[in-house]
Amino acid sequence: MSEHKISTDALVGENDSHSWLSNPLDWRYVDRMIALSFIAQLISVIFGGTVLFALNAQQNSVEALQYLNPTAASYLLTLFALHIILNLGFTLVAFKKREHQSNWPLHSYVIGFSFVTLALCMGYATGSYFSDGIVLLLFALALALPLMDLDILKRAYIFAWIGFMVLIVIDFGELLPFAPLFSNNLTEAQRPILGWHLLRVITSFAIYFTVFFFTLPTTRRWRDRESLYMEMSSTDGLTRLTNRRSFIERSNAEFSKLQRMPGKLACIMIDLDYFKHINDTYGHQAGDAVLVEVAQILSDNAREYDEVGRYGGEEFAVLLPNTSKDNAAMIAERIRKQIEETAIDIGDRELSVTASLGVAAYPIEGVTGINDLLKFADQALYIAKEKSRNTVVVYEQDSGGEN
Fold first, then answer.
1. Which of the residues in the chain have pLDDT under 50?
2. 357 by DSSP, 3-state: which?
3. Is residue 147 helix, strand or coil?
4. Residue 3 catalytic?
5. Residues 6+ apart with CB under 8 A from 119
6. Residues near 394 by beta carbon (within 8 Å), at least 6 away in sequence
7. The pLDDT of residue 402
């Protein structure tokens, strides 16, 4: 993981101390990898224990049909043991490193590539790499996707894809024995033998419930954070109105509709009068209270499909789809009057503020894009500020922008 990504994790609130029972997305990256490592080791313990139990039962029962190839089973058990030892060793080191760093990329690589290798080898040994092997890899993907660095995860699964291609060549080219773990056919009367059938059922349900109970809340938190980031990127933090960038994007979208189906579109630009004096006299906290109150007034006067945004500083904008010039002027006057009549509590006193408003409406000559409409509304606002403040000016093409 890059330094940039580490700093991003810090910004979203990775905690140095946390409960191991909390959502893993609230953990530091190194702690997420520790959890994934233990889950990977658990897979080896479960499958290795199953093979060991079956092999032991087979060796202690001379009369039983010999289903497992002891040599292949030994190789597979060695692979499970190496996987556990490797991951456990790196996990113990990770516990030490977490005291002074939040990320250890090498640990991620070990987890990802060792698990892919394990899944491919198990799939080859049992002849089920097209079914059980893929399920196991998808299980790992579901667990790791919200937790692991995506670049590392991508490389691990590219390695898995290459491994699958190799197994396909081996399989169709008959270069190696098929399902070398088994000495005899695992079916009786065209049904799997009871032990193998039970193992696959237990494994399937274990994977299902792990994915459901572990991955679902993690992914839900992941989506909640994505929604939060989306909101933060489009919303002004103080007033909770749309920010300038998102306001212009919505305005462009509304104007594009008019190119397909002719209609009306109006815009109101609002600027608070003498706002700098409020900040200088009463402080920025008082100025923030004024901005929040004005934002609420604008929202209260907007319809569901209107767009209200903080355009910058003490300047606001309201986009009014399907609204004529005259109706927009009436809305602007209602807003102006309500701002003037509202007493704003700033703690030890109440303030009264006023605003100047500029209105422009489409269709109007000279408007070929949303920037033209916003520019005309801004020109009307400038005239209102120059004229007397606390007033509404409607842009008129024939009268140089003043009404």
1. 1-15
2. strand
3. coil
4. no
5. 133, 136, 137, 140, 160
6. 325, 328, 329, 332, 358, 359, 360, 361, 380, 403
7. 55
